[in-house]
């Protein structure tokens, strides 16, 4: 089952360790400006929110790219930028609803979170667990839909009966 980055902004302390870990993993230097994750902070409200690619199911960044430089990696479930194909047109940055696709300050080409090929550096350093890498919630939603369909078919008399638990106790009607 694929995993996804889960963000719990209520736990984020604004320490910026995730930004440092990301930039070090990608560029071998500690530079929040070069990170694929950014912490938006409102000090007057004591609020910090990690801003990172949400790996959208419909991925507007991938759809708008004129050269197809943003593609889904089926193995990791992340949309990745092919730097060799990217033109640096910034269309992906414009359409990203999370402002998580940004131009690289050195090349002008798009950069975004690629989930570190399935082992996000940001998650490893997030002490308050504001960032977690967990089972894909869409997969769990699919399981819920499957169970709901089973219940609906059973109620309509089309599917197998749903065990109620009372049968185990011997007190089923």
Characterise this structure:
The protein has six helices and eight strands. The strands form four sheets. The chain has a two-stranded antiparallel ribbon. The protein has a two-stranded antiparallel sheet with strand order 2-3. A two-stranded antiparallel ribbon has the order 4-5. It has 173 residues and is of the alpha+beta class. The protein has a single domain, classed as Alpha-Beta Plaits. The longest helix is centred in the last third of the chain and has 19 residues, at 137-155. The model is unreliable at 159-169 (pLDDT under 50). It has helices at 17-27, 60-64, 91-95, 121-125, 137-155, 166-169; strands at residues 3-7, 38-42, 47-51, 70-73, 78-81, 102-103, 110-111, 131-135. A hairpin with a 4-residue loop joins strand 2 and strand 3. The radius of gyration is 21 Å and the shape is globular.
Describe the SSE topology.
Blueprint: E1 3-7, H1 17-27, E2 38-42, E3 47-51, H2 60-64, E4 70-73, E5 78-81, H3 91-95, E6 102-103, E7 110-111, H4 121-125, E8 131-135, H5 137-155, H6 166-169
Antiparallel strand pairs: 1-8, 2-3, 4-5, 6-7
In short:
The chain is an alpha+beta fold and 173 residues long. It has helices at 17-27, 60-64, 91-95, 121-125, 137-155, 166-169; strands spanning 3-7, 38-42, 47-51, 70-73, 78-81, 102-103, 110-111, 131-135. The protein has one domain (6-132): Alpha-Beta Plaits.
């Amino acid at each position: 089952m694929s995993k996804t980055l889960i963000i719990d902004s209520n736990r984020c302390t604004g320490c910026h360790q995730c930004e440092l870990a990301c930039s070090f993993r990608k560029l071998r230097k500690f530079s929040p400006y070069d990170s694929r994750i950014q912490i938006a902070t409102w000090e007057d409200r004591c609020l910090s929110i990690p801003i990172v690619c949400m790996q959208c199911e419909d991925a507007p960044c991938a759809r708008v790219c004129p050269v197809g430089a943003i593609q889904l990696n089926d193995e990791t479930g992340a949309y990745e930028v092919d730097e060799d194909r990217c033109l640096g047109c910034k269309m992906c940055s414009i359409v990203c609803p999370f402002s998580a696709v940004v131009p690289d300050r050195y090349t002008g080409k798009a950069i975004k979170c690629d989930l570190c090929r399935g082992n996000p550096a940001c998650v490893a350093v997030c002490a308050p667990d504001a960032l977690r890498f967990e089972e894909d919630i869409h997969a769990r939603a699919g399981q819920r839909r499957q169970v709901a369909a089973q219940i609906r078919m059973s109620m309509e008399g089309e599917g197998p009966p749903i065990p109620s638990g009372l049968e185990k106790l011997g007190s089923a009607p």
